[in-house]
Amino acid sequence: MKSFLTSLPTLLPIIYEWAEEQEALILANGTPLTECQRADACRAGVARPEKIRVLQVETLPQPDHEDLKFIARQIGLFGPRSAGINLGYGICVRRGLGEDRETLVHECVHIAQHEKRNGLRPFLTEYLRECLDPGYPFGGMEQEAIVVARDICRQSDVAIRTKERS
Fold it and tell me: What pTM was computed for the model?
């Protein structure tokens, strides 16, 4: 994967353009989060949950550029098990997963990461570098999204079970 790191600076402008186009499509066609989903987004660290839109699709959007497709396949992005992708304030999920709590919280953690880095471009630069070295899904940002989403969902599940017992 480290060999891809050398071509990343050349590909970043193409990646940014594609990601920004996809975000605009999701924001225009997606649905806002429900009240419960907004609460989860806040738990995940999102400062502006009202800006988030979710779009359910049959297949996740992929870049047309052949080099980007190749690298994405090598990294493991857009694989058959990929549930969703976050692009700015847009979340795109496979049809049927729009209500999957852990998937949405995971993507909200990525939105919080993008907010903390002051935008989509700085987020993508860092995230993609981590996808290449140490590799997807072992980078710090992806691991944070996995752990935080799992913890938020488990905490709420425990609270619900405790309430049911009372």
Answer: 0.90
